[in-house]
Every structure is written in C-alpha cells, then in structure tokens.
Specification:
Chemotaxis protein chec, two-stranded antiparallel sheet, 6-stranded antiparallel beta sheet, 20% strand
Length: 155
C-alpha cells in the first residue's frame, strides 16, 4: 500500500441525495445504495445545522478514538462530546434496510415525514426535507466562491 492509497479509505464514499419518508413508527428506509456499508451496524447521532449524522460502525469507532484524545480539561471538548455522544444510538438496520430514529433525535432534527438523506463522504446526513432545501439554496450562493479557500489547488 502506497502512502497515497493509505490516505484514501477502501470504501466507496456516500454520495447523492434521496428523499424517502419516515413511516408512522419513525423508521426510515435507507437508500439501497447506502445499505451495504451500513448493514453491519451504524450509529446515528446529532449533527451540525440540526441534521442527523449516520456513521458506519467502523467510521464511528475511528472518530471516537480520535475525539476521545481531546483534553478533558477543555470545556469546549467536554461540551462537544456530551452533545455528540449523548444522542448517539447504535443499530443494525432490519432486512428491509430500515433504520429506527429515536424520538429525541427526530425532534432535534425537526423530522416529521419528508426527509432528505444525503451522502456526505464518510457519513450520511438526514435532514428535514424543507430544512435541507433552505440550507442548500443558501449555500449554493457561496459554493463557487469558497472552493479555492476550502480546497486550495484542488480545482
């Protein structure tokens, strides 16, 4: 394995936008494209901008190892960990690819019926559909202006 290939995980990144609906029990049918990477287990937790983050178990464990090294003396680190981990829910999707989203997480993200499920590279994000559309419309304005700033030399 070369140094370059070590920098890129051997999984396919989560890509695309899907618009499933939550059922009456708060379950979401995961997009078929995402199911193979999530079938062995996943963690759903609070994300930023009032969405939910869904991590494959291995990615969540990698992240947890990284964030647990934060100094316990840092109030900012303690606050982040508390919010991030206290809402975390681990699960194995059922045979139909359904994920149960606990009521507190649905309330946090404002999820009712219509949702947007987006691929965000190493994770999946679940948004209220209207909130996602509003966020995307706002961000598209700055998208082309920030590419060079965020990813220097990539474009």
């Amino acid at each position: 394995m070369t140094d370059e290939s070590a920098a890129y995980p051997s999984y396919a990144p989560f890509l695309g936008t899907f618009t499933p609906r939550l059922d009456d029990k708060g379950r979401l049918i995961l997009p078929a494209k995402f199911r193979p990477q999530l079938a062995a287990g996943l963690v759903v937790t609070r994300g930023q901008e009032r969405c939910l983050f869904v991590f494959p178990m291995a990615e969540f464990q990698r992240m947890h190892e990284q964030i647990r090294t934060a100094p316990v003396t840092s109030k900012q680190a303690r606050d982040y960990l508390r919010v991030f981990l206290s809402g975390a829910h681990d699960e194995i999707p059922d045979k139909q690819g359904r994920l149960s989203i606990p009521a507190p997480l649905r309330a946090y993200a404002g999820l009712d019926r219509d949702v947007a499920v987006i691929g965000a590279g190493t994770r999946v994000e679940i948004w209220d559909a209207a909130a996602w559309e509003a966020y995307l419309a706002e961000q598209v304005e700055a998208y082309s202006e920030t590419a060079e700033e965020v990813f220097p030399g990539a474009f």
